[in-house]
Prior knowledge:
Layout: H1 2-23, E1 44-47, E2 50-57, E3 61-70, E4 76-83, E5 87-89, E6 96-97, E7 102-110, E8 116-126, E9 133-143, E10 146-149, E11 152-159, E12 164-172, E13 182-186, E14 192-197, E15 206-212, E16 219-229, E17 234-243, E18 246-249, E19 253-258, E20 264-272, E21 280-285, E22 290-298, E23 302-309, E24 316-326, E25 333-342
Parallel strand pairs: 2-9, 11-17, 19-25
Antiparallel strand pairs: 1-3, 3-7, 4-6, 4-8, 5-7, 8-9, 10-12, 12-15, 13-16, 14-15, 16-17, 18-20, 20-23, 21-24, 22-23, 24-25
Amino acid sequence: MQIRQILLAVMIGLLMAAPARAQEGINPNIPGGNSALPGREPKVQVDNALYDFGSALEGKQVTHTFKIKNTGQGYLDIRGVKTSCGCTTGTPTKTHIAPGDESDIAVMFDTHFQKGHQVRTITASTNDPNNPQVPMTMQGTVKQQVAATPSEVAFGNVRKGTEATKELVVDDLVGGSNAFVVGPVSNSSSSIKVIQEKRTDGKPGALLKVTLLNTMPVGPFDDSIKIVTNRVPLQVDVFGTVSGDLNVEPAQVSFGIVPRGQDVVRIIKLSNEGSRDVKVLDVSSSTPAVVASAEPVKAGKEYKLTVTLRRGTPDGQLHGNLTIKTDHPEQATLSVPFYAIVGQFKS
């Protein structure tokens, strides 16, 4: 008897709670449902969806709080907030907003390593059937505090065993009463040496001499110089290519768009600029669809490589590498990438 009375009380409670849940725009017949009743839909409204912060110095944090208001008759749910690169957001102060109420979304834009006009978008997902994705925008101009001239150090093509030096100047773009201090300066590669000196023009900042040492191995290289200052940190990329005695032209093989059912041939040249003669021992491909052979043009100094894309290669994109083996003590293996699009494709 007591069990029946308990069950009856539970059923009565559920029936009484259903209308109240319906008032909030929740379908009581669907577990976890949030469908609004007709005429009682939520409506999202953002006060000032565009925030222009004007200008800010690089390295400063720009903050703003967007206000989202529910001007509808049903409960408004904020289901998530996404941002474009460079922004972080806090959790909305409310994610279940009653009619007439509002929620705050705090946004922070990190201006480190940014410069010039910047635009960031913050998007809130809601259950408003007419506005499920609500964009908010933060924009303005970021002014650099520190700059390097040039902004990157490009060595280009440097012969193996030689050294090359480039210079760059670190400038203070802010000025003011605080003295500009540069240093320390660091980088990762042991084959790139960076020396900091005073500027020759007497202005605040520093002169950096960047030297590519003769220990850098053959092939492309890249490094980053990290510069500490009392304003903001600065990073300068360093890159280039060290060429050895053996060089391949072109550096990669493009077959382009190839009709199905025919062979396609490309010619590449291997040249030896060293003092000793070099033999090509073998040429192999990463896929049977492409074959290659080598023949001497001038024994020990120049070779002609014939590269063939075979007929019958399946339609689609093809990527791979040729491997050239030689008896050169420092360049025993050379790699040449190749690519093709086989067949005709309709858009």
